[in-house]
Known about the structure:
The complex is a heterodimer.
Chain A: E1 5-16, E2 19-30, E3 34-38, H1 45-52, E4 60-65, E5 68-69, H2 72-75, E6 78-81, H3 93-104, H4 111-117, H5 133-145, E7 151-155, H6 163-178, E8 182-187, H7 190-196, E9 199-204, E10 207-213, H8 214-217, E11 222-228, H9 231-240, E12 244-250, E13 253-258, H10 264-273, E14 278-285, H11 288-297
Parallel strand pairs in A: 3-8, 3-9, 6-7, 7-8
Antiparallel strand pairs in A: 1-2, 1-4, 4-5, 9-10, 11-13, 11-14, 12-13
Chain B: H1 2-12, H2 16-41, H3 44-50, H4 58-70, H5 72-87, H6 90-96, H7 101-133, H8 144-166, H9 170-196, H10 205-212, H11 218-224, H12 233-257
Amino acid sequence: MENTHILSLHQIYKNYGAIQALKGVSFDVPAGSVFGILGPNGSGKTTLLGIVMDVLKANSGTYSWFGQPSDNDHRKRIGTLLETPNFYHYYSAVRNLQITAAIKGRGADDIERVLKLANLWERKDSKFSTFSLGMKQRLAIANAILGKPEVLLLDEPTNGLDPSGIAEIRDLIRQLGESGTTVIMASHMLDEVEKVCNHVAILKRGELITTGHVDEVLADEDMVEISAADLPKLESVLNALPGVKSVRRHNGSFQVMFTESKTAEQINKHCFEQGVTLNYLTTKRKSLEARFMELTNN
Amino acid sequence: MIQLLNIEWMKVKAYRTFWILIILFFVAVPLLNMAIESFVSQTKQVSLLLGSPFAFPRVWDTVAWATSIVTPIMGVMLIIFLTNENNFRTVRQNIIDGWSRDQYITAKFGVLITTTLFITLLIVVTAFIFGLKNGTGEATENIVYIFYAFVQSLAYLSLAFFLGVYMKRAGIAIALYVMYAYIGEFVVAGLLDYKVVRHLGAFLPLESTDRLIPGLSNFARKLVDQGNPPPSNSTYVLIALAYIALFNFLSWRKIKKSDL
């Protein structure tokens, strides 16, 4: 089970007229992973998910679910929230979920559980058109987890939710991930992916930048902030230090990146031996935010 | 197929707009026929001119013709039903939840056929009751009009189906449909017939079936057609079937190929 792929993409291309939304994207989603598809707005995340759910047609390329060629019955095993909650406006929450259960061929006895989980049980007989944005989103999540699917595919699942709602959804995703459900989640919010995902693929303008385990892709690099009275001398000393990748001036101090890890003691000792007394030294882990910007902005 | 239709039924069984339109149609058909019957039977000159159109066997033709005047109500229902799926993006959700595109299309064609059968059945029952009431004549004669009525209803609804699939906005689709069904085609057919070539108007999708079931307009049509024999009924049927096939093929292709 560990080595099988739930979803494999191979060279997916998609154009909207002259605009190339996806330019040959390929990656695999391992079984049992919580897989984040990360990218800024307009990077092609929703297009990609639309293609693997057969609501959008790729110009070329192939994909397979569960290691088999595309088949609509596969989608019955996947709980999906794609872009916006899509429901019959004139129907109640319960009637809408009944229709989903009828199409999926399962989950009709699961409606009470998912509505309670989504805090919508009290409003189960209210028309969808009377729901607030957050309630619509929660109904969409209830719809996705109806019948306990093997795979969850969520596009911006915390859209429109309040902070406590966001936390609840993250907890839910984490729990489902721990219980063995494969979760594929698209998001432009890095901390969301960082908090819940163990694998990630990063998209930028329709191209795959990188993919892999979250610790590898968003690998933390050490950064040291350092200052001394004699800044020009400090700069030359730092540049002479082996293993330095870059030195950048920042608000009267230097931000130094290393290609290999250095302890604060090693740096302090080196500078002191070269005749510079430091008045400020702190090590910082480079934020994931910065890493993400680096990956997507150049 | 039954399962697909069952899900389509779930989508409308508690939908108020659906029931209002169905009931409106269900009530309008017998009432319209009653009104026409009274008009014909209680005015002596009209009665002499038209004979007894509500007695067997002419009643099949007459009731089918009168019903076709209100059939667009069912076309409007179909347009709303289809544009709802686009506007609410539930067509997307149906596919996402596990229907294939073919299943979605089959379900919709199922609704189209079911609605056509409903209209045809209502015509048969109404005609039968009026025929029995008016006594004389052979009931089984002209029974082919039941088939014609089916073809006509299917043509009217297929046009609505086509508009419902291609148009995003229900309002515009309904306005186009109603305008075309009541006025547009009458105008185009008139111009084609009398400014271009006689009987060319018969090659329009709804007009072909209207001429198949002339009803009370038959006497006027006969006067106009003197010296210019019209196409045969089988020609009308073939024209209508060709349009039905075209509308449904285009709808199928759109749902099958496009981004939803």
